[in-house]
Amino acid sequence: MSDFHHALRSLRVWDTDLPAFDPATAPEEPLALFHAWFLAAVAAGQTEPHTPSLATAGADGRPDVRTVMLHDADDRGWHFASHATSAKGRQLADRPEAALGFYWPVQGRQVRVRGPVTTASHAEAYADLHARTTGALAAALTGRQSEVLDSPAALAEASEAAWARAEAEPDADAPTWTLYVVEPAEVEFFQGDARRRHLRLRYRRDPGAATGWARELLWP
Ligand SMILES: Cc1cc2nc3c(=O)[nH]c(=O)nc-3n(C[C@H](O)[C@H](O)[C@H](O)COP(=O)(O)O)c2cc1C
Q1: Which residue numbers delimit the Pyridoxine 5'-phosphate oxidase dimerisation C-terminal domain (predicted)?
Q2: Which atom of ligand 1 lies closest to the CA of 90?
């Protein structure tokens, strides 16, 4: 067996003490449960629980996925930011739907969010960017995300210039920097279990339900 296969076979999931989850006591809508699980992930020492995978598909229907940073989760939905001119930005312009996947292994938990994507106003994107770090502004000012890079030196030069501008002009605008909101149509909470009796609770938007949400358990 190669080192790779040896390492791969030696790894386990769900072999630590995992928290209990009783879907019967879960809130009536998913946002409250997401906030509770997020805070629990932070308290449990989960590293970077705010970095979900974001899946999109363009006009050709081919799926794509990458990591982004969660900027908020509120009544409007799950917020993230990126360049409208990036690959994901173009895909979202063609097909404004996405899925987010959070995995918090310390607690054996996964959260999946799917739904239509809307774009916040530029004023909101600007405010969001300027509430962040100089590094975040410098990264946004560097621009050209997902374009082919001719050489590392070209990046170093553009990044130096962007950092200098971010430091000298903290109010500088990054016109393509866009705040996206995934409006939840479905949100699924997965609690892993050592005996593989994983619990899956899915909230599905249902205008006929008093809470606006149908809740259902899924086979693992
Ligand atoms: C931990 C982490 C956080 C990231 N956060 C963001 C983000 O908030 N926005 C963003 O545009 N890219 C972010 N990236 C980079 C993306 O994963 C990706 O490389 C980039 O957005 C280009 O994706 P695209 O070509 O599919 O558009 C992050 C990457 C990592 C590893």
Answers
A1: 177-220
A2: 27
Closest CA to 104 of 5, 23, 189, 217: 189
Q: Which atom of ligand 1 is found nearest the CA of 80? A: 8
Query: 47 alpha carbon to ligand 1 midpoint, in Å?
Result: 17
Does residue 51 have its Cβ closer than 6 Å to ligand 1?
yes
State the CATH number of the domain containing residue 47.
2.30.110.10
Residue 2 lies in a domain: no
Beta strands in 6-145, from DSSP E residues, in sequence order: 53-57, 63-67, 72-74, 77-83, 97-104, 109-119
Q: What is the pLDDT of residues 82-130, one digit of tens each?
A: 999 999 999 999 999 999 999 999 999 999 999 999 999 999 999 999 9
Residue 109 structural domain: 24-130+176-218
- Asked whether residue 143 is domain-assigned, the answer is no
Is pTM beyond 0.90? Reply is yes
